[in-house]
Amino acid sequence: MPRWVNRPEGSNWGDFGDDDQIGRMNLITSERRRAAMAEVREGIAFTLSLPLNVPTIPLTPFRRPPLLSAACDEEGDMYNRLDPNGEESTCDDRVLLYTQHSTQWDALSHRGRTFDADGDGVAELVYYNGFRAGDHVSGGEGAAGAPCARALGIETLATAGVQGRGVLVNLKAAYGTEYRPITRDDLLRAINAQRVEVRTGDFLLLYTGVDRMLLDREARGKDVPLAMAGCALDGRDESLLQWIIDSGITAICSDNLAIEALDLILSPEPPPIRLPVHDLCLFRQGIFLGELWYLEELAQWLGERGRHAFLLTAPPLRLPGSVGSPVTPIATV
Ligand code: UVW
Predict the structure, then answer these.
(1) Which candidate, 199, 203, 225, 201, places its Cα nearest to that of 214?
(2) CA of 224 to the centre of ligand 1 (A)
(3) Residues in the ligand 1 pocket, defined by CB under 6 Å
(4) How many angstroms does the Cα of residue 134 sit away from the middle of ligand 1?
(5) Does 137 reside within a domain?
(6) SS (H, E, C) 210-235
(7) Tell me, what's the pLDDT at 279?
(8) Distance CA 33, CA 30 (A)
(9) Which residue of 59, 94, 162, 199 is most buried, as measured by CB atoms within 10 A?
(10) Are 258 and 243 in the same domain?
């Protein structure tokens, strides 16, 4: 039985089943994975993650670098107790990890909104495919000490086999590094100029140059306004949202902070839906979002060769109940 009577306009709830929790990731069939592998010509691999300990970004001060320390109690650890003379050494460690601090996946439980899914005139906080706040997802309203997601957690992505055809659009080459909300026409102009062929089931990677700004922040010793830098998708453009629906893509990933233009959320009078691309992708369509990826080297290599497609392998942590995860994606060209 569906968890909804009404589904939001522009949503695909139910199309992949009443209990589906991985949305468009269902489009990655074995045939599409084989086609992705056919994009590997050189066997060269690019790591697409920033270090996990990048400095905190002013927009999200509650996300911090990992706190890593040795895993032992006052009596040391088990290995050292069994080896009191210290003739051998074994090291373990532990970490306090903010799962969305650096290169990351957003799970579909990362964003929901109030919507009258029951059709009874009462709007409730709902997530992709009609999963509910409270029963299935508890967010920032005080779930300290408990995992956030009893449904739509990142483990659903971890077990989906995140591997397929990636395509990269170089927005930095097309439009530079000044802040620029990108409309459908802007995106299509870059896609056509760079001869990028976007296919159903693809991971769409958007390179903006924000990764370099982030890496240089520490060296320069000052804050760069990263939230308003480089290109970012303009969720106000309904035709862009429709293009995302029609394109059949499985995920959108970028080296910028949030995939989408943040002047909306930062404006003194934000609109009712503050992150419309997140709303479309995570809430309505089950399209996963990858943020703060490190794309500089891959973009340069592809650009020098007039290529745009590759095999992408990007599983998150299999961390039950998490609404996001660090990821170390690999692009093989
Ligand atoms: C923002 O930082 C606005 O986006 P996300 O929460 O998806 O990281």
Answers:
(1) 225
(2) 17
(3) 59-60, 100, 106, 110, 257-258, 278, 291
(4) 22
(5) no
(6) HHHHHHHHHHHCCCCCHHHCCEEECC
(7) 98
(8) 5
(9) 162
(10) yes
Structure confidence by residue, pLDDT tens digits, 183-209: 999 999 999 999 999 999 999 999 999
ipTM of the predicted structure? 0.94
Answer whether residue 2 is part of any domain. Answer: no
Which two three-digit tokens encode residue 189?
A: 């102009």
For 9-20, how does the pLDDT look when each residue is reduced to its tens digit (9 = 90+)?
999 999 999 999
Domain holding 92, by residue range, is 67-96
Instruction: Tell me the mean pLDDT in the region 154-183.
Output: 98
Q: Which helix (H) or strand (E) holds 68?
A: strand 67-70
Residue 60: inside a domain: no
15 domain-assigned? no
Q: How confident is the model at residue 145 (pLDDT cuts 50, 70, 90)?
A: low
- Residues 32, 175, single domain; the answer is yes
Give the residue, 107 or 270, on which the prediction is more confident: 107
Atom of ligand 1 nearest to the CA of 57: 2
Tally of structural domains, the chain = 2
Q: Could you identify the atom of ligand 1 that is nearest to the CA of residue 278?
A: 7
Tell me which residue has its CA closest to atom 8 in ligand 1.
Answer: 258
